[in-house]
Amino acid sequence: MPDLNDVFTPALAELQARQLLRHRRQATLGDHGQFTVDGAPRLAFCSNDYLGLAQHPALVAAAREAAERYGVGSTASPLVSGHSPAHELLERELAEFVGMPRALYFHSGFATNVGCVAALVGRGDAVFSDALNHACLIDGARLSRADIHVYPHNDMAALERELRACTAPRKLVISDAVFSMDGDLAPLPELLALCERHDAWLMVDDAHGFGVLGEGGRGYLSHWGVKPSTIASRVIYMATLGKAAGVSGAFVAGSVPAIEWLMQRARSYMFATGAPALIAEALRASLRVIEAEGWRREHLKVLHARLREGLQGLPWEAPASDTAIQPLILGDNATALKVMADLEARGIWVPAIRPPTVPVGTSRLRICLSADHRLEDVDRLCGALREIAQS
Ligand SMILES: *Cc1c(COP(=O)(O)O)cnc(C)c1O
Predict the structure, then answer these.
(1) CB burial of residue 11 (10 Å; 0-12, 13-18, 19+)
(2) Which of 174, 180, 184 to probe ligand 1 with, by most ligand atoms within 8 A of CB?
(3) Does one domain contain both 308 and 257?
(4) CATH code at position 343
(5) What pLDDT does residue 33 have?
(6) pTM above 0.70?
(7) How far is the CA of 82 from the centre of ligand 1 (A)?
């Protein structure tokens, strides 16, 4: 058998040849969405810190005080000694915030989906998964050993056909609430109606809607005017807390027995060290800021309208987006990388997203707005894109 070097040196060279090799930058967040990237200042449109909370003084102070009180490590799984009073309060406040009977906090969103999907269904059951779902929902479905039915993106007619034909004892529909590479929404009323008609459960991943959508930033369910407690017997709501909430980790919320089951059986919860209490305290502060500083969501809407206006007339498609995520579809990898480099030469950082993250032929710039941006920052981005398009 060839050794590790013999296998992976050519494998990496092949990624390089296909323009799929990724590089990390050393990035430090500053003011107004500015980062220092490998030592140079960059106006960045790449962070998921949609509300600009990652450096909010109230969150930083909460984390600092919690470090003094609890130290920095959580010591064990939450089922052993890794669940502090701070975690307990956070879970209660999360449940109350999204209007569900109970919530369970996980150290990461990826771990949440992988563990929860696999704990909800098993061999002989069926999972119905939107074609554009996030990798961790897909991996959770695979890990569950249930049969996986992938339906075309947001195609409710196709989903209904699959559901109608299915005789599995448990059916679980899984969907991103806001699709992470396009910024569009899954149609909750239709999803709920289908799940009721065909007796399926629904799990929605609101990584990009929590904090941004809905009344007071309560997220996707609130956006659609659905009262969460009325659907808790069928729906598991999941959201991450490292994006708009500005910290890290994630949670699931739903009925008391369902969430208790996930605590008992999600392996990524049981067999992982809990997040530090200082993270839980920073998140509690974040919930208060999300609610109190509604101007951040308002400002994001103003920035979004300005961006949509500024992207008009460019030779690239900018599909309508409902959120702070705005894709600009460039096509092949080389074009996406070229435009990214041309922006970078002008001091602007927008990541090029390539397969396998997005389908082949839809390589794109994923422009992310943050409440930290100013109108002039958006104007600078649009001006640079116009220059690049004409050059
Ligand atoms: C980012 C993301 C996750 C993963 O959450 P982490 O906390 O970053 O692990 C899950 N689902 C979606 C849709 C995401 O965008």
Answers:
(1) exposed
(2) 180
(3) no
(4) 3.90.1150.10
(5) 82
(6) yes
(7) 22
